[in-house]
Amino acid sequence: MSQLLQKPKESELSQGIKIVHEVTQENSPLKYVEFKIVDLAPGAKYEETLGKKECCIVALAGKMNVTDKEQTFNNIGTRDSVFDKIPTDSVYVSNDRSFEIEAVSQARIALCYSPSEKQLPTKLIKASDNGIENRGTRNNKRLVHNILPDSDPSANSLLVVEVYTESANWSSYPPHKHDRDHLPEESFLEETYYHELNPRQGFVFQRVYTDDRSLDETMTVENGDVVLVPEGYHPVGVPEGYTSYYLNVMAGPKRIWKFHNDPDHEWILERKS
Ligand SMILES: O=C(O)C[C@@H](O)[C@H](O)C(=O)CO
């Protein structure tokens, strides 16, 4: 199996707490992004002390209370499933703090991390704060919820966005990359993709490749999988009949998303619709 594809592996941390994914610097090629998926049963409490990392807690599904021990946000989360296709609530917690999440209902939570030194205020990012974008034409249409974009200065490094791609469409397409710290042309950002499919037996294809093809992997991605993008272009193709959801976490030395399209495929954007 590809080194860039991580399958869900449920491990029970304690009663009512399941770690479904844990992407760390130790088990991945990534240096700027770490990522977890945690499932909580109603009433279960998950606690963490961050150290030199910042964290964006995304209420993927279900309702929860989140506290950093100074501020508490009760009953956050807006949907039963990501496929309700409405934005959700998130909480940003800075480095050298701790947090606790208590599930009000059965909940799935994404924890998005990046190394961070400078403490910033804890912030509730309400569903209504998400910037909503409909991108693309033809079979390149997707719906984007900007949770923590580079225009929002609430974080030191983290960028977080969720994307819906309808059946028989493509996203992160035409293929683009952001793996050179060479502004203003391009920024260096690592990225993770957490994928879900509706219906859940679906699959998508994701290719991760560099110009010289020293990296060129095409993965069959199923419901709940995580794809790691340390570098390279990373398009996603969705088969007919299935809707794709993914949550992207990006981070790098500079908090700016400046991508570079694959010149071979940029003509896709130049067609008249
Ligand atoms: O517009 C899209 O298709 C989504 C992508 O931009 C995705 O968020 C990504 O690749 C970020 O680098």
UniProtKB/TrEMBL annotation:
It comes from the Bacteria. InterPro entries: Deoxy-glucuronate_isom_IolB (IPR024203), IolB_Bacilli (IPR023770), KduI/IolB_isomerase (IPR021120), RmlC-like_jellyroll (IPR014710), RmlC_Cupin_sf (IPR011051). Keywords: Isomerase. One of its GO terms (molecular function) is 5-deoxy-D-glucuronate isomerase activity. Its EC number is 5.3.1.30. Pfam families: KduI. It catalyses: 5-deoxy-D-glucuronate = 5-dehydro-2-deoxy-D-gluconate. The keyword Isomerase applies. It is an enzyme of class 5 (isomerase). Pathway: Polyol metabolism; myo-inositol degradation into acetyl-CoA; acetyl-CoA from myo-inositol: step 4/7. Belongs to the isomerase IolB family. Involved in the isomerization of 5-deoxy-glucuronate (5DG) to 5-dehydro-2-deoxy-D-gluconate (DKG or 2-deoxy-5-keto-D-gluconate). This is 5-deoxy-glucuronate isomerase. It comes from Scopulibacillus daqui. The gene is iolB.
